[in-house]
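Our consortium's second objective concerns turning raw sequence data into structural hypotheses that experimental partners can test. To show how far this objective has progressed, the report includes one record in full. It was chosen at random from the queue rather than selected for favorable results. The single chain below, 297 residues long, was entered without modification.
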Amino acid sequence: RLTSLALQPVITPELMQGRVHLKCTYSHPSSEPPLQYVVLWSRLSTSGKREQIHQETTLDSFSYVEMDGTNLRLGDTVFCTVTAFTRDTPEQQSLPEESKGFYAGIKFLPESLQITEDGKEHVLTVLSTVPIACPGQDDSCKITLQLTTENLGKNSQFPGPPDIALSVCQVELLQSPCSESSCAAATVTVTAVTDFAQDGDTISHIRAEPVGRGDLLWRAYTPKDVEVTVRDLPTGNCYSFTDPHIITFDGWRYDNYKIGTFLLCRSTSREFEVHVRQWDCGGHLSATACNCGVAAR
């Protein structure tokens, strides 16, 4: 009687004759008579519905299904379940063994971000878990993704101004050999917009949409958004006013009655500084200077 055979099915992507396929492989225990396998393919759609898409009986230690854009679409999580039996006793089957779910489509790593309004850049990797096919001789072997951002604010009913900035508006995923669950990858940096406003923590989404692809597989596919939480930071203020009285970021107060151009403020961590120009505005009776110009970088 057959028991658990440790078949350990695994799904890997493969490009066959220019078409994207998924391959289910499993261990092939030696047996007399030789074993046969029932391979059941199923998918979990983005709506959360699980359904069977294909079943076959085979002597091979592998099974293929095609990502055709109809029965099997990008955005699906795919499973293969394998059961073994001998030809003599087909009613005596081994315990079914299911693979881990294989997500077919575009992934972001990390899947969500928590960043702060501190000017730091955060790297977001965009990758395809399936090979990039070349649909025709005129088309290059790549997927172009248009990146957009949306600020949901504290709730989706009142979206605010952009709260994050991306280093690029498009990324290209070029065809390359599949390895470690990635068949093509690109990176983009995400930075929180410093808005000098006490607006609390906000939530933004990054959306990627394939552009310029005519084939059915990519045409109707929009990857899942990346959620970015932007943590608010308290804003510092400094002042130079009237003849000029100066209050620094940490509240220190002093006067500067001199005439000339002065460095008012400079960041030690980024390229940011403010210069101020002061001229004589006190006349003959008193030596007093006033702000007459400012330059900021």
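The partners drew two points from this record. The domain at 10-104 is CATH 2.60.40.10 (Immunoglobulin-like). The mean pLDDT is 89. Both points have been shared with the crystallography group to help prioritize constructs.
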